[in-house]
Amino acid sequence: MPTALSFLSGLLSRFTLAAAMLAIGLSWSVQAQVTAPESEPAAVNMTVDRMEAILTALDPDAERAGPAFRLTVGDVPLLVVTDARADRMRAMVPIRSAEGLSGTDLMRMMQANFDSALDARYAIAEGRVWAVFIHPLSSLRRDQLISGLGQTVNLAVSYGSLFSSGAGQFGRGDSSGEQQKLLERLQRKDEDI
Fold it and tell me: Signal peptide position in this chain (predicted)?
């Protein structure tokens, strides 16, 4: 009989533990529902058609060719390509030919990719240097798209000087020191005027 009693006691203990865990889980779930912001909009998956609406709001002259777009942001030509089946998108600005790219420029691009390019990146493809923003298509949100496009344009425009997306710097990298050196060089040039 002691074995049946210990079996029932163990079962009761496990049941009590399971009930307590369930109660705690429900409590956390209810608390999360109560504290969640009510104004947060429901997530809407990005589609090529939704992207077209956003891009034409940014540039009414934007052109669509199937899954690709051509538009201008801040006088900078921007290409956006999508692949719904692969769930990817890429925004690109051509910067220059990769031929003759110096080791110093390549080093600065890699340093910037680490800390000052943020969501955009420098890349080399098809013999060209590009500023690019790459993201899964369906999970891309409107604000992320707009920010990514702006960072890509800033990265292209700042090539050869700040090498920055304009969205700040992240973590410990080399860009801050390189940007300080640029500022000091410009200040020395100003002394000659």
Answer: 1-32
Measured distance CA(93)–CA(122) in Å, rounded: 10
CATH code matching the domain that covers 48-189, chosen among 2.102.10.10, 3.40.50.1010, 2.60.290.11, 3.30.1460.10: 3.30.1460.10
Check residue 122 and give left, alpha or beta (phi > 0: left; psi -120 to 50: alpha): beta
Q: How far apart are CA 147 and CA 120, in angstroms?
A: 9
Give the pLDDT confidence of 79-104 residue by residue, as tens digits: 999 999 999 999 999 999 999 999 99
Measured CA distances, 17 to 24, 29, 72, 80, 132 (Å): 11, 18, 62, 54, 53
pLDDT tens-digit map of 99-154: 999 999 999 999 999 988 889 999 999 999 999 999 999 999 999 999 999 999 99
Instruction: Report the distance separating Cα 164 and Cα 120, nearest Å.
Output: 9
How is the chain split into domains, by residue range?
Answer: 1-40, 48-189
Q: How confident is the model at residue 165 (pLDDT cuts 50, 70, 90)?
A: confident
